From TrEMBL:
Protein name listed in UniProt: Choline oxidase
Ranges for domain Glucose-methanol-choline oxidoreductase C-terminal: 367-503
Binding-site residues for FAD, renumbered to this chain: 91
Gene assigned in the entry: codA
GO molecular function, one term: choline:oxygen 1-oxidoreductase activity
Keywords attached to this entry: FAD, Flavoprotein, Oxidoreductase
UniProt enzyme class: oxidoreductase
Naturally occurring in which organism (per UniProt): Streptomyces ambofaciens (strain ATCC 23877 / 3486 / DSM 40053 / JCM 4204 / NBRC 12836 / NRRL B-2516)
Native organism taxonomy: Bacteria, Bacillati, Actinomycetota, Actinomycetes, Kitasatosporales
């Protein structure tokens, strides 16, 4: 059904999904299983169908900074790296079409943390069984993709740290370990099993499913009754239009663009919005706050020559450590890169080896949290992102990186990895003190592209919660948020599968799945 409004021609559907990323693809596929339910997906980027640049997993690194990247930057980071490109995907499938597809189930304690923060119904017993509904093809890195140097990293890491070698990190919850990651991919052909490939590609011919690609959503609008039911968009031709949801609007634009869209529409910290001339529709002080990430640093070695060419995506293995053995979860993580990732060390003046590898010590549950805000009321202007890296008062995040750099050196000095390495390039063996390692580690720090938390869910009496445990936008009927922005705290490990689980659960909360009967118990 179409009509004309002051915002251009208007079309209506039962559900309108703003963002065709990881969560949006799940919702679109699941909700459109009902042939009488009309579903529209608004996605700012193009399709990934038939595009090998997107579909071949090992090409991920070439997507950073490309036309498929919104390319957000951060404000000055006095204790971190102010030059990080915070890549956000501009393509169907979102970051699952853009990242390395490392796929971990959330650890039970991560979900326990959510419940402790007032998120009833997000306990491990409720959430983890949704793994049986996932359509993505998640498997450990295939034998043919296991590079010899990555195998030797795993052996050396186990010997140096004493942790077990884990064959499948998703087989059961783990406290520590080293091994090859599980990936959402088809090893034959090195093809992604992204949310787009797994959920949407098989159902693109459904007559009740509409994809509006290269269409930018820039403001939420009320209808004649004052209910928030519409979204103002601009299509690929630049012409304005409006899309109306007769049941619910589902915001799935991610931890940057979902709060950005809310604030542009008058939902957010009232004083900030008024200062920009934006009419306040709801004073929600938590919108844009609680900005989370997995910060990491890097240590680089030169190898004697070129490495064997086989790999799934050049960062196929890793390590998880507990520095406090009585804790149930790792508090230090590493990726092992079979390429020298030198984008930050080169800027600091370090040489770039022709052949090399690196380890990236990572802070699984960083205690430094940031915020994002609008710079102006202009929808085209990028928001300000301040991750406040390494600012937690206790110095936990900084200490994690320093400890990680030291552990990395121990692994590099252990057979059989040691025999591959010629020299440490960055920071170099002369950098040994805690202060020097901290200075280097923070300046060379990067992101694993895991922003989250900016529209966090919480209990009704939590003043900073943006949505309730049913993912409903506070104080508004008919709008839910379904993406990583709802995370109240960061999962220990790579969060893509957690986003998939949130989306599968959201289908039930909407009444569109087999678990819908249980949703009344969550109220």
């Amino acid at each position: 059904m179409a009509s004309t409004t002051p915002h251009g021609p208007e079309t209506s559907y039962d559900y309108v999904i703003v963002g065709g990323g990881t969560a949006g693809c799940v919702l679109a596929a699941r909700l459109s299983e009902d042939p009488d339910c009309r579903v529209c997906v608004i996605e700012g980027g193009p399709s990934d169908v038939g595009d090998d640049r997107i579909l071949r997993l090992r090409n991920w690194i070439n997507l950073l900074g490309s036309e498929f990247d919104y390319g957000y930057t951060t404000v000055e980071q006095p204790r971190g790296n102010s030059h990080i490109l915070h890549s956000r995907a501009r393509v169907l499938g979102g970051c699952s079409s853009h990242n390395t597809l490392i796929s971990f189930m959330p650890l039970p304690q991560d979900l326990d943390d959510w419940v402790a923060r007032g998120c009833v119904g997000w306990d491990p017993q409720t959430v983890l069984p949704y793994r049986d509904r996932l359509r993505t093809h998640i498997v450990p890195v295939a034998e043919a993709d296991r590079n010899p140097i990555a195998r030797d990293f795993v052996t050396a890491a186990a010997r140096a740290t004493g942790v077990p070698v884990v064959e499948d990190f998703n087989a059961e919850p783990f406290a520590d370990g080293t091994g090859f990651f599980s990936l959402a991919y088809q090893p034959e052909g090195n093809l992604r099993s992204s949310a787009s490939v797994a959920y949407l590609h098989p159902v693109l011919d459904r007559p009740n499913l509409t994809l509006r690609l290269e269409t930018w959503a820039h403001r939420l609008l009320t209808d004649e009754a004052g209910r928030l039911t519409r979204v103002a968009v601009r299509g690929p031709d630049g012409m304005p239009a409006a899309v109306r949801a007769e049941r619910e609007l589902l915001l799935c634009a991610g931890a940057v663009d979902t709060p950005r869209l809310l604030m542009l529409s008058g939902f957010g910290p009232a004083d900030q919005l008024r200062a920009l001339g934006i009419e306040v529709r709801a004073d929600l002080p938590g919108v844009g706050e609680n900005l989370l990430d997995h910060p990491e640093s890097v240590i680089v070695w030169e190898t004697a020559g070129p490495l064997p060419p086989n790999s799934a995506m050049d960062s196929d293995a890793g390590l998880f450590l507990r520095r406090e053995p009585d804790q149930p979860r790792p508090d230090l993580m590493f990726h092992f890169y079979q390429v020298p990732f030198t984008v930050n060390t080169e800027r600091l003046g370090y040489p770039v080896p022709e052949h090399g590898v690196c380890m990236t010590p990572n802070v699984p549950r960083a205690r430094s949290t940031g915020r994002m805000w609008l710079r102006s009321s202009n929808p085209a202007e990028h928001p300000a992102l301040d991750f406040r890296y390494f600012t937690d008062p206790e110095g936990h995040d900084e200490r994690t990186i320093v400890d990680g750099l030291r552990v990395a050196r121990e692994i590099a000095a252990t057979d059989p990895l040691r025999d591959w390495l010629v020299r440490e390039v960055a920071p170099g063996p002369d950098v040994t003190s805690d202060a020097a390692l901290s200075e280097y580690g923070r300046r060379a720090a990067h992101t694993v592209y895991h922003p989250a938390g900016t529209c966090r869910m919480g209990a009704p009496d939590d003043p900073m919660a943006v949505c309730d445990p049913q993912l409903r936008l506070r104080g508004v009927d008919g709008v839910r948020i379904v993406d990583a922005s709802v995370f109240p705290s960061m999962p220990t490990i790579n969060p893509m599968v957690t986003v998939l689980l949130v989306a599968e659960r959201a289908v039930d909360l909407l009444g569109g799945g087999p678990g819908a009967a249980g949703r009344e118990a969550d109220r």
